[in-house]
TrEMBL record:
Protein origin, superkingdom: Bacteria
A GO term for molecular function: zinc ion binding
NCBIfam families hit by this protein: PRK00924.1
Name under which the protein is recorded: 4-deoxy-L-threo-5-hexosulose-uronate ketol-isomerase
Keywords from the UniProt entry: Isomerase, Metal-binding, Zinc
Biological process, per Gene Ontology: D-galacturonate catabolic process; D-glucuronate catabolic process; pectin catabolic process
Species this chain originates from: Spirosoma pollinicola
EC number: 5.3.1.17
Gene this protein is translated from: kduI
Enzyme class of the recorded protein, top EC level: isomerase
Family: Belongs to the KduI family.
Binding site for Zn(2+): H212, H214, E219, H261
Amino acid sequence: MQTEQIHQTNTPTASQTTFESRYASSPGEVKGMDTAQLRQNFLIETLFVPNQFRWVLSFFDRYLTGGIMPVDGPVALDTPDQLKANYFLERRELGIINVGGAGSVVADGVTYDLNYKEALYIGQGTQSIQFISNEASSPAKFYLNSTPAHTNYPTRKIARADAEVVTLGSMETANHRTINKLLVNSVLPTCQLQMGMTELKAGSVWNTMPAHTHDRRMEVYFYFEVPEGQSVCHFMGQPQETRHIFMQNEQAVISPNWSIHAGAGTSNYTFIWGMAGENLDYSDMDFCAITDLR
């Protein structure tokens, strides 16, 4: 349940903000990229630094991927100059999933408590947002996705019990997984942002198989719960011209709308998927036969 009350806090901690823009890349460009260039264009290596907002803007659908880990008290969301806006959500909506310790988000004076793997949607037009950790020794890690928005929909918390849950795959094909649809239009209204979380069962390592593309939407994957010393290999590119990026825990990767997006880990793990584009149809996918991948 969301806590609807005015939250009394001390003066918010002064935060720093890093903001990076990534240009859109065509299949022809990506075909010629080496490992370093692929990582530079698509991999988001660091999202959580104490008291620091870290944002990467992809020119694919102007999708913003970010993170904030408040340690020294409340941290207020500022508005990067690159948005050319009076406040961050003047023309945007925001999705949040907590992947750290217990914390809360204060949106226009209303407090929403977020435990591990709980989500919050904040609608366009919300002017004041603060992020808080319950304990500095176990700080919250708020994973953030933001997209352009055309209208205001109500801010709403989505707990684990509120998610639409689907189980897919099997142990035999090493892709037995639970899909938690959190911020999707079958759960709550949004303009274009969709977010959810897929948890791989023990012994399974493949996600999103068979692979697919969707020209109507781009996507960002955030991998976490990757055990120490293990990695996830993320696959991207056109179905007949694939590329791969090895990723570590709590890293994200941008997936263009023309690209497949799949992964295989050296252990089971969890990932958050976020999408934006011209429709809200979760099943809008152009599947690629596994035997046709190259």
